[in-house]
Amino acid sequence: MRRMRVPLITLVVIFAIGMLGLTLIPGQDDQGQPYRLGFLDAFYFMSYTASTIGFGELPYPFTYAQRLWVAATIFLTVVGWAYAIGSLLALLRDRSFRAAIARAHLARKVARLREPFLLLAGYGRTGELLGRSFDALGRRFVVLDIDRDRIEGLDLAPFRADVPGLVADARDAVALTVAGLEHPRCAGVLALTNDDEANLTVVMAAALLRPDLPVVARTAAPLIAERMRAFGEPTVVDAFAAFGRHLRIALRAPASYQLTTWLERGPGAELPQRGEPPREGRWVVCGYGRFGRRLTEDLSAEGLEVTTVEPSPDPDEDTPEIIGDGSDPRVLARADLGSAVGLVAATDNDAANLSLVAAARRANPDLFVAARQNRPDGAPLFAAMGVDALLVPTEVVAHEVYAQLSTPLLYRFLGLAAEHDDAWAAELVDRLTDLCGRRLQSIWKFRLDRGRAPGLRAPLAAGRVVLGDLLRDPDARERPLRAVVLLVLRDGEAIPAPGPDLALRPDDELLLVGRAVARRSLDVTLVDEAAATYVLTGDRVPSGWLWRRLTRTG
Prior knowledge:
about 550 residues; alpha/beta; 6-stranded parallel sheet; 18 strands; flat
């Protein structure tokens, strides 16, 4: 505001000079006697004259001397107003001033938040996917991004609640503080930019300013990941490592891979196809960058032979077996795709990956093809190509973060699911599809305590609550609820996909997947003692106080 100091002082001086002149120049009253304006009359006249309202000459008509002075001051005030308005418009167009106003506005919005929220540093494709998922869960979040268009787009996005956003660099610790890093309601920080150094800065700021806050950061560089882990215990998500881990699960247990990817995508996701990656034979990896090297290590760890192809290898890294463009027929001939069982198009160029897939399909139609999609606008092309396994780094990161933050029990279940055999996962997928359909329904959790399950307090204490009975319709006990219990957490011990004969105990925590109507019915059982008695024993008991008194009297 210092830039407006001189224009405002100029206006004040012009007004003061005009008022002073009006009080010094004598006028005449209606009797022809000398009359001088007081300071209040002079101020009043200057005010309505300067604002172009123009009530007239008050309280008496002016003399010629007064009119000459007023004419001079009118022109002088026009110049003063033009100078002040021009300075104000220039100030409003100034980027730093607008940024300061935006920061102050965001600070007020964040200060008014009275519910837990997440701070998203970076609102690219990953942040957008997570924002939609968190909004569907009813979780609030604040966005910080360096791209002005992304922040302005928040006002047009169909979110249920207002999403505060700030245009700023994630490296700016002050901006992180303004966005709510030190707010007592901040429940977590997500470093999701496409700049590893910026994500590292966010991790450092969170560790130093809020060491108790959970932090999730994105990076594909092992060195940056190690630096991040030097600051507290952040959760580091590497899309390349996650894809390689998923591919290894798919090689060993296709049903487990199908189950985990389905649950990671969140409610509304369609059940993915159960692929059958070849478990024996030779694979060809075209693109020996960070992703290609990581994937080669994962395939080799599964005992598979891998042939690597790279047109411009890094002199500081391992040399690929074949140097050349993978889309060149002569290079593909050297890779001998006819004898290979799988191909991975792992370059950072979507056009090159699509070309590799097309050339590989011509050379060997039976190849299992995996590809890396770098840009979201290439999705229709990869879908039309019919790739068997597709890596979209932004979506992989979004799914990993969602699984960790949406429901911590879900992330724990996914880790346990990978330890079970494929038959166990296939049976669970069948149960889910039979009860809930092929589109993933709601995921929720609850604890069997006094606050959440008052209707089960006595049966739980007596050990008479069996999981299979609990999941019955409180209106018609013979109908099972369309819900599946994924996990029961008891005294820190996790029981994945428990059977219907599991006896529940007080303070057990349950993770379920099911339809919304099943969730509402289960809520009735948990709260209503009469409904709980019916689903557990089949006996109908009076639910109201009056009916219970009448029953006892009879």
